[in-house]
Specification:
By secondary structure, this protein is an all-alpha fold. It has a domain of 140 residues. The protein contains 7 helices and no strands. The protein is globular, with a radius of gyration of 22 Å.
Length: 248
């Protein structure tokens, strides 16, 4: 027997206000900011890629005596920033805060963006970025496999798991909203949000599954924040270079 969906007065849901934002055309200010950001990102990526290709990873402070340089320092920084977003969202859910939704959405999106930024730095650290595929456990005719004794591989495994769970946690929270937009939009937007809504109808059974899934991910991600950050900190603790394995 399905539990009836929770009744919420229609007046309490600013549906028209939300739809107005979705349907609003992108103005010249938005496009100007987007174009400026895209050009700045392209310049930064091109300049840094050229420098690393021309001079090597020594520009990041990595040499024969120093195993980890500024790239791994920045990697751990972005991972820490992503963990802050996860912890904020999960703790607010576990403590049943009714006002959590807008803050949690922003925190979860911050997590995904931060993890994507962090994933760039281990690839750069490899130096020969075209060989980064060797970090994945793919069959290879020469018998070369990932070295699981390397902290760099620990980073790949930990961050991949963390990103996947964070992505699912973020997406599950958006499914009812996608369904609302599907029911209120027409044409191309209706089809687009229909795919994202995954057949959500708002039945009692679906709400129970939604609540259980959200709670489960929050319970998993809270200790995962500690474990993943502990793994990435091993980058510094396992090296014997003076300074890098000390608390300073």
């Amino acid at each position: 027997m399905n539990r009836p969906a929770p009744s919420v007065p229609t007046a309490d849901i600013p549906v028209e206000a939300m739809l107005a934002e979705v349907r609003k055309p992108l103005g010249p200010v938005w496009w100007s900011v987007f174009l400026a950001s895209a050009l700045l990102a392209a310049w930064g990526i091109g300049w840094s890629s050229w420098r690393i290709a021309a001079e090597g990873v020594g520009v990041l402070g990595v040499n024969n005596n120093v195993v980890w340089g500024l790239d791994i320092v920045h990697f751990v920084f972005w991972i820490g920033l992503g963990h802050a977003g996860t912890l904020i969202s999960a703790v607010l859910l576990l403590t049943c805060q009714s006002w959590r939704s807008p803050i949690a959405r922003g925190a979860e999106q911050m997590t995904l963006c931060a993890v994507i930024c962090a994933a760039v730095f281990p690839v750069v650290h490899v130096g020969r970025v075209w060989m980064a595929w060797m970090a994945s456990p793919l069959p290879e005719v020469s018998g070369i496999w990932p070295d699981m004794a390397s902290p760099l591989m620990w980073d790949v495994m930990a961050v991949s798991t963390y990103f996947l769970l964070s992505l699912l946690y973020w997406y599950i929270g958006l499914v009812p909203d996608f369904a609302l937009l599907r029911d209120c939009c027409k044409g191309r937007l209706r089809r687009r949000y229909g795919w994202l809504a995954l057949g959500w109808q708002g039945t009692g059974r679906q709400w129970r599954a939604y609540e259980k899934a959200s709670l489960l991910f929050a319970v998993i991600l809270t200790p995962l924040v500690v474990s993943v950050h502990s793994v990435v900190s091993f980058d510094f603790s396992v090296t014997q270079v003076p300074g890098w394995h000390q608390s300073i």
